[in-house]
Amino acid sequence: MKDAFGIPQSLLVLGGTSEIALATARRLIARRTRTVWLAGRPSPALEQSAAELRALGADVHTVAFDALDPESHEAVLGKVFAEGDIDMVLLAFGVLGDQARDEREPLNAVRVAQTNYTGAVSASLVSAGALQSQGHGSLVVLSSVAGERARRANFIYGSSKAGLDAFSQGLGDALHGTGVHVMVVRPGFVRSKMTTGLAEAPFATTPEAVATAIEVGLRRRSETVWVPGALRLVMSALRHAPRGLFRRLPI
Amino acid sequence: MPADTVSVTGWGRTAPTTARLIRPRTYEEAAAAVRGCGARGGIPRGLGRAYGDAAQNAGGAVLDMTGLDRVHAIDADGGTVLCDSGVSLHRLMEVLLPLGWFVPVTPGTRYVTVGGAIGADIHGKNHHVSGSFSRHVLSLELLTADGEIRTVRRGTPLFDATTGGMGLTGVILTATVQLQPVETSLMSVDTERARDLDDLMARLVATDEHYRYSVAWIDLLARGAATGRAVLTRGDHAPLEALREGTRARREPLAFRPSRLPAAPAFLPEGLLSRRTVGWFNELWYRKAPRARTGELQRLSAFFHPLDGVPHWNRIYGRGGFVQYQFVVGHGQEDALRRIVRRISEHRCPSFLAVLKRFGDADPGWLSFPVPGWTLALDIPAGLPGLAALLDELDEEVATAGGRVYLAKDSRLRPDLLAAMYPRLHDFRALRAELDPRGVFVSDLARRLGL
């Protein structure tokens, strides 16, 4: 069960090697979290993440999960929920893709869309159903400021996050009053292995800062969290910038 | 039987979860609800005054017992009452005061049910004299997980597991309670100020035994030399001769007329209770109290239940809700108490309802909270920065001192400290495993702490 501050005792991470997810898990383990499920494609990195969290004192399990195989989601996640209540599901998987290459190779672009959007839709719905039947829990979805308005530089990734963001907001409204809390997290540029080699954008942040914002959002039962918070205003202005201007902006 | 799916929280309005709310009107309906409560079990709920998640059951059933609200029999000579568990202490006072009887123990609110009073084994300002509520319960009827109704008498393991058992042994249906005789519905109250924590403790140790009721409001925002300054209010039921001849009070000495203000509005902004506003309040409250006054006549409601005058007062904390923290440490652990008070004061917790009291002898309930010593209760907005970590530190201090926190108020304790705080926890778990092997009775509190 979550405590008065919204801190979960059990956590299911979808995308178990995500740096943001691991930073969040570390933070929550330091507080109350005792059971962690890391779901992801079986890999040494996944086991290493599990070992790292285990060293902090948590009871950590890994489970084979592939966002690109939605048919398996019901069975895979069903098994996790059958082991006991999950207080928080952190949907953290996603791929950035390579915009220039993906524009040339549509199948790669489709993969980005399928992972970030279709896979997330399936996993969210399966998780939401399980949370609803246990009558409590938070579904925390890692969206991105890139989804707020698609940019020339990464509109394939951005559009997939836009879809996920809109979906998650709708899901949050659908679940209002069921005891399940859906929180959409919109980080800006996060310095992580996903973004190594990319030019840093303004308002760049870190996985740890995102983790802190998630912890605060859980306590407040927030529905939307921007990291850093100033991006809410920045993106609000950018969203309303005229197309001609937006296109020319160096972002 | 009507059942609604609703979002449920405790009085602190944190950690809402959803459950099917069932409101049985008869014992048969209650038994049917227990038999049919499904895989996620059920938990009885009274008036929802437990601050944390004790009367919530995510995804399962919550049995609203306030539909079982009959007072069955009053022995006006012997001073006992047999009533349903859903009867509130407020209702009992309305019924009993005109007959010259009062509830044996009342907490800071009248709006708790008899079932809740037993389940949380509540205490009041008279704990140092009268013990906790269960000391005055002669017997009770318990609806257990098998759907059967058992009569549970004092001195049995099931009685001791049920008193303080947070509703996890079964649903209390009725109870027979021994009452306290009174001549009037007024209180004779002595008020004095204590300039700091040591002064306060010295006064409580020296003269508590002269009073049936005793409590101290403590200013936890005061710092430096004034740390722990307090206002003591102690008294007893006023005897008839204390009331002046010819007054209305003397003509109707047993009248029960609690006053009520309008309810707090449903939506209040957060941050009304900041360090600054609570600091002002505490300063004013301390200064307005007389240095020493004796024999003041107060209404019962003003002395025991000042907050009941404002329905839904918990809303003043805004949407984020608040956390109640109450612990007890034994006599001889005064240094731990001093450290904790200093720590809270240094953290500048905006708490305006903090009270310190000395407990008397413990009662046998396995998970009953009171043990002889010092108990401090305070309420803090849940959004206060650093609060979670501060309370974790205080838990460590309390556990090291051999003390414990109060489950009826808890919403955030670290589960692994529980066994140290409640040494009979193992017995409690064993009894539940035997009595309720399928785990029919379960609450969010029980899930969170592994009760």
Itemize the secondary structure elements and their pairings.
The complex is a heterodimer of chains A (251) and B (451).
Chain A: E1 10-14, H1 19-31, E2 35-40, H2 44-54, E3 59-64, H3 73-82, E4 88-91, H4 99-104, H5 106-134, E5 137-142, H6 155-174, E6 180-187, H7 207-220, E7 224-227, H8 231-239, H9 243-248
Parallel strand pairs in A: 1-2, 1-4, 2-3, 4-5, 5-6, 6-7
Chain B: E1 3-8, E2 17-22, H1 27-35, E3 42-45, E4 61-64, E5 71-75, E6 80-84, H2 89-96, E7 101-102, H3 114-119, H4 127-130, E8 137-143, E9 149-153, H5 157-162, E10 171-178, E11 180-181, E12 186-194, H6 197-207, E13 213-218, E14 230-237, H7 248-251, H8 275-288, E15 292-299, H9 300-304, E16 322-330, H10 334-347, E17 355-359, E18 373-381, H11 387-400, E19 404-405, H12 418-421, H13 425-435, H14 444-449
Helix pairs in contact in B: 10-11
Question: How far apart are the termini of chain B?
Answer: 29 Å
C-alpha Rg of chain B (nearest Å): 21 Å
Total strands of chain B: 19
What is the CATH architecture annotation of chain A? Answer: 3-Layer(aba) Sandwich
Structural class of chain A: alpha/beta
State the low-pLDDT regions of chain B, or none. none
Biggest interface found: A-B, 21 and 30 residues
Number of helices of chain A: 9
Quick one: overall form of chain A?
globular
- Note the quaternary state here: heterodimer
Q: How can the largest sheet of chain A be summarized?
A: 7 strands, parallel
Low-pLDDT sequence parts of chain A: none
Would you kindly provide a written description of the structure presented here, covering whatever features stand out?
The complex is a heterodimer of chains A (251) and B (451). Chain A has a seven-stranded parallel beta sheet with strand order 3-2-1-4-5-6-7, with helices on both faces. In chain A, strand 1, helix 1 (19-31) and strand 2 (35-40) form a beta-alpha-beta unit. Chain A is α/β, with parallel strands linked by helices and 251 residues long. Chain A has one domain (10-248): NAD(P)-binding Rossmann-like Domain (Rossmann fold, 3-Layer(aba) Sandwich). The model of chain A has no long low-confidence stretch (mean pLDDT 96). Chain A starts with 9 loop residues before the first strand and ends with a helix. Chain A has nine helices and seven strands. Chain B has 451 residues and is of the alpha+beta class. Chain B has two domains: 67-182, 2-Layer Sandwich (Uridine Diphospho-n-acetylenolpyruvylglucosamine Reductase, domain 3); 186-419, Vanillyl-alcohol Oxidase, Chain A, domain 3, CATH 3.40.462. Chain B is globular and about 60 Å long. The chains are: A alpha/beta (251), B alpha+beta (451). Chain A binds chain B through residues 1-7, 9, 31-32, 85, 133-136, 177-180, 219-220, and chain B through 5, 7, 12, 14-19, 40, 52-53, 57-60, 320-321, 323, 382-383, 387-388, 411-412, 414-415, 444, 447-448.
